[in-house]
């Protein structure tokens, strides 16, 4: 992105227009639909960029500038409420200096010298949605969301169902508008999502969305069933002042029966404000609800009213936000998960914390070296700090990636914490867990006797890219495995005969759904060769390689026989590609573009294991395995084995390969006596030489394109 100072006015105008569109779209998704499409950090970055351009090009500021807007218009379906005093937003600070700068600008506005005393309150910024409650004569008469700041949604009936919101007040001013945040605790959020999932309803990405989605319900019965809470942090219209100070006013609201935040502190200036910020940040993980920063407010209400408002934010307050994609929390426990190939993966169980808008309670710890504070080659990571149970750790998330533990605060380590001892036996089956040379991962050697591996294999087998059986997801497979109904892949296809009757009577199933599942299983008795191969869950065998193998071998018996031959060839024992290539069966695998030594070795050794092989044969016995779709036979390259080498300029290697295959050619990765045609671009090396030696026809990229032009 271009620096603002180097933008031309035309570019600035165009970018302001784009930002206005993008921000409006994000506002609509977040505020009106409770379903954000971008992260808060990305949103904040858009707003910042917009503000920077506007301040550099004040003349270009748009009539619909996002800087002048709050939230989103109230949704249709709700009655509208006009706020007697607008409900605005808050300015943002991200760095410590911006907090000092805030104090300076307040003083400047008020004409106060740097050493004049000026008190602020600092309190958590709760991540929910704001609500304005109007009491008249001590009775709650209306409740409204913020909407676009001027007009909100009437949610009075819904608000009445929230325990923290009193229906009547004693000794209150005749007119009193209380403003605060509606939110949901982590525990209630998790329970709600579980219930929603079980009922097949919509689940929420984070507690804020859950709170907003629950309050903004057209049916108040739904709101009533949702565990919402309310913190009072401010007020709107008043017939009589509550107090002289922010702190006094909030204390008064507490006396009236509202829940207020007990982490509010009076601060003497920026140093104390930042101190409170760090204290609150430390407590963040253990609060049990989401906060996304700390709000500082000038304490003296007379000064607040002198300071007043900008278009959408008060001059007397600012929100100091926490870094969005990073958070500190407690690592409660390290657990070991056993994967499909026996890999022991350490997982950190964390005290839940929100990172980038998502509640995180687990993070990966990669492997035992990572926990110990070293990389695979022994060099220290995190300055060599190891990770222990009970540690205070920093968690981060980027995009949709699994959360990771990035750092440890050794100063906060419990005194009795001991270095983590990585298990050397499988926690599920007790077999030895060993680490092979050069492998960062420790693996359970239990194979098929390991229940963890067995169930992971089954889950893999029914997955999308494998058998993809409708109604048989990971969850059902796990249950059937636990109950002993399905122990290995072949059992899925005998389920009808063995358990058909019981399935119909099984809890949560019934006649219809049982029949649907059994039909769905029958429908998969015919399966594409590549899906079958992928379903076996052989280490290093991905979807793409499964396709390559299927195209090359066409049927399962041929592939299996070639693997058997490879296993019996003496060169199989030898190291190195050259030695392997001397064996015809090995080299047949290696000649397939996209199939390398590691995969070949894994495939050959897996199929050579008697138990493993018997299990695959039992599965295959129930199946009709379909060869890949017939290829074009009338193209000039049909049936020929083609090798591409050197740089291709008009297409990528992948494109060239796909095109050749669609024309019925076989694409190989290396030149051999079986090669019919070499397509050599600039920089072609040993393959071109070998082709000459073997007398194989060689053409360039243009020659290739000409050859297939009419195909
Ligand atoms: N991801 C997205 O697409 C997206 C879109 C729009 C907004 N957002 C998020 O919302 C923010 C902007 O929303 P906003 O205009 O509501 O501003 P804001 O959330 O930054 O600040 C204002 C709000 O803070 C709340 N608040 C909580 N505790 C408070 C306290 N103690 N005192 C005062 N107010 C308190 C109030 O509800 C108030 O309306 C963005 O910074 C972003 O994080 C995200
Ligand atoms: Zn095991």
Automatic annotation (TrEMBL):
Gene Ontology annotations of biological process type: DNA repair; DNA replication
Keyword match DNA repair: yes
Enzymatic reactions: NAD(+) + (deoxyribonucleotide)n-3'-hydroxyl + 5'-phospho-(deoxyribonucleotide)m = (deoxyribonucleotide)n+m + AMP + beta-nicotinamide D-nucleotide
Keywords: DNA damage, DNA repair, DNA replication, Ligase, Magnesium, Manganese, Metal-binding, NAD, Zinc
BRCT domain mapped to chain residues: 632-705
Source taxon at top rank: Bacteria
Residues that bind Zn(2+): 426, 429, 450
GO cellular component labels: cytosol
Active site: 125
Pfam families tied to this protein: BRCT, DNA_ligase_aden, DNA_ligase_ZBD, HHH_2, OB_DNA_ligase
UniProt-listed Enzyme Commission number(s): 6.5.1.2
GO MF term list: DNA ligase (NAD+) activity; metal ion binding
Family: Belongs to the NAD-dependent DNA ligase family. LigA subfamily.
UniProt cross-references to HAMAP family, sorted A to Z: DNA_ligase_A (MF_01588)
Free-text function comment from the UniProt entry: DNA ligase that catalyzes the formation of phosphodiester linkages between 5'-phosphoryl and 3'-hydroxyl groups in double-stranded DNA using NAD as a coenzyme and as the energy source for the reaction. It is essential for DNA replication and repair of damaged DNA.
Protein name per its UniProtKB record: DNA ligase
Organism: Silicimonas algicola
């Amino acid at each position: 992105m271009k620096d603002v100072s180097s933008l031309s006015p035309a570019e600035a105008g165009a970018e302001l227009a784009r930002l206005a569109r993008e921000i409006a779209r994000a506002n609509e998704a977040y505020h009106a639909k409770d379903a954000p499409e971008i992260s808060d950090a990305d949103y904040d970055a858009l707003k910042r960029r917009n503000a920077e351009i506007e301040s550099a090009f004040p003349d270009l500021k748009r009539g619909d500038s996002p800087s002048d807007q709050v939230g989103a218009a109230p949704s249709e379906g709700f009655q509208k409420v006009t706020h007697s005093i607008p409900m605005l937003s808050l300015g943002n600070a991200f760095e410590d200096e911006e907090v000092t700068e805030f104090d300076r600008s307040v003083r400047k506005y008020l004409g106060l010298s740097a050493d004049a005393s000026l008190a602020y309150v600092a309190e958590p910024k709760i991540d929910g949605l704001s609500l304005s409650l109007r009491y008249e004569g001590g009775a709650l008469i209306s409740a409204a969301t913020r909407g676009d700041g001027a007009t909100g949604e009437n949610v009075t009936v819904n608000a009445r169902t929230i325990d923290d919101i009193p229906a009547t007040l004693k000794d209150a001013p005749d007119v009193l508008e209380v403003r605060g945040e509606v939110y949901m605790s982590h525990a209630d959020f998790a329970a709600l999502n579980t219930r929603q999932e079980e009922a097949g309803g919509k689940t929420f990405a984070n507690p804020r969305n859950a709170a907003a989605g629950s309050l903004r319900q057209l049916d108040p019965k739904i709101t009533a069933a949702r565990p919402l809470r309310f913190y009072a942090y401010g007020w709107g219209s008043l017939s009589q002042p509550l107090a002289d100070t922010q702190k006094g006013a909030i204390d008064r609201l507490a006396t009236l029966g509202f829940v207020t935040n007990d982490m509010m502190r009076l601060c003497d200036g920026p140093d104390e404000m930042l101190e409170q910020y760090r204290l609150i940040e430390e407590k963040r993980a253990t609060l049990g609800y989401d906060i996304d920063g700390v709000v500082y407010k000038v304490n003296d209400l007379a000064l607040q009213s002198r300071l007043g408002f900008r278009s959408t934010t008060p001059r007397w307050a600012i929100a100091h936000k926490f870094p969005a994609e990073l958070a500190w929390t407690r690592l409660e426990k390290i657990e070991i998960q056993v994967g499909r190939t026996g890999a022991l993966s350490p997982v950190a169980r964390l005290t839940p914390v929100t990172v980038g808008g998502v509640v995180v309670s687990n993070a990966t710890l990669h492997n035992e070296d990572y926990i110990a504070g070293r990389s695979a080659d022994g060099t220290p990571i995190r300055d060599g700090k190891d990770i222990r149970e009970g540690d205070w750790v920093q968690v981060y998330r980027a995009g949709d990636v699994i959360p990771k533990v990035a750092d440890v605060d050794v100063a906060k380590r419990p005194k009795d914490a001991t270095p983590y001892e990585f298990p050397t036996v499988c926690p599920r089956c007790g077999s030895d867990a060993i680490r092979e040379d050069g492998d960062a991962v420790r693996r359970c050697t239990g194979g098929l006797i390991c229940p963890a591996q067995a169930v992971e294999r089954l889950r893999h087998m029914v997955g999308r890219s494998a058998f993809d059986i409708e109604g048989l997801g990971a969850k059902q497979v796990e249950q059937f495995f636990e109950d002993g109904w399905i122990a290995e892949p072949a059992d899925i296809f005998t389920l009808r005969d063995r358990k058909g009757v019981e399935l119909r009577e099984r809890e949560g199933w019934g006649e219809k759904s049982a029949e649907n599942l059994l039909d769905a299983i029958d429908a998969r008795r015919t399966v594409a060769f590549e899906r079958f191969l992928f379903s076996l869950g052989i280490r290093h065998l991905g979807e793409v390689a499964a396709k390559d193998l299927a195209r090359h071998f066409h049927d399962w018996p041929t592939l299996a026989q070639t693997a058997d031959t490879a296993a019996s060839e003496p060169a199989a024992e030898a190291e190195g590609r050259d030695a392997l290539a001397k064996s015809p069966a090995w080299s047949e695998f290696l000649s397939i573009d996209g199939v390398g030594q590691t995969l070949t070795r894994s495939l050959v050794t897996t199929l050579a294991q008697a138990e493993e092989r018997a299990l695959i044969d039992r599965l295959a016995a129930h199946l009709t395995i379909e060869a890949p779709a017939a290829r074009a036979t009338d193209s000039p390259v049909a049936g020929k084995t083609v090798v591409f080498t050197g740089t291709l300029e008009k297409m990528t290697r992948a494109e060239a390969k796909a095109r050749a295959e669609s024309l019925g050619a076989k694409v190989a990765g290396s030149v051999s006596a079986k090669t019919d045609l070499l397509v050599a671009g600039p920089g072609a090396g040993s393959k071109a030489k070998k082709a000459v030696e073997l007398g194989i026809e060689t053409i360039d990229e243009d020659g290739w394109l000409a050859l297939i032009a009419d195909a």
